[in-house]
Amino acid sequence: MNKESIYNELQFKAVRSSGAGGQHVNKVSSKVELSFDLINSISFSDGEKEILQKNLSSRLTKSGVLQLASGESRSQHSNKEKVIKRFFEIIEKGLIVPKKRKTTKISKVQKQKRLESKQKQSAKKSLRKKPDVE
């Protein structure tokens, strides 16, 4: 994954942030929105795009665009850094393919031990019963 080529494809937009901040918040566009067109990206191979589309399906729009926003800070620069950092974390996690589980067989020794322990437990419980007086 070449971060520089991906970074060149990112699109940023600064908008007014909501929330507290007094009169200053009405004048300054400090919130940063990042959008990345995954389908038309040249930074990823077709296989990587498929994996990302599958893993990030809930985060993508219908047109295959990943959108993130950060308005935590009052500084546009720090919001931009935060949203870029979060974007690359999401992409890295999205590219991880979980290993396939190999089915294994229980060994004969393990089966035998389990059955023996069940028999011991059964014997212990049966000794706790009151004896039949006839």
Give the strand line-up of the largest sheet.
1-2-3
The run of helices and strands is HEEHEHH
Mean pLDDT: 89
Query: At the third CATH level, what is the topology name of the domain at 3-94?
Result: Double Stranded RNA Binding Domain
Structural class estimated from helices and strands:
alpha+beta
Number of helices: 4
Number of strands: 3
Measured distance between first and last alpha carbons = 82 Å
* The top level CATH class name of the domain at 3-94: Alpha Beta
Provide the helix percentage.
40-55%
CATH architecture designation of the domain at 3-94: 2-Layer Sandwich
The main β sheet shows up as:
3 strands, antiparallel
Shape: elongated
Low-confidence stretches: none
* Rg (CA only): 29 Å
Please indicate the percent range of residues in DSSP E strands (runs of 2 or more).
Answer: 5-15%
Describe this structure in words.
The chain has 134 residues and is of the alpha+beta class. It has a domain at 3-94: Double Stranded RNA Binding Domain (2-Layer Sandwich), CATH 3.30.160. 42% of the residues lie in helices and 13% in strands. The protein has helices at residues 3-9, 46-55, 76-94, 108-127, and strands spanning 11-15, 31-37, 65-70. A 3-stranded antiparallel sheet has the order 1-2-3, covered by helices on one side. The longest helix has 20 residues, at 108-127. 11% of the residues are buried.
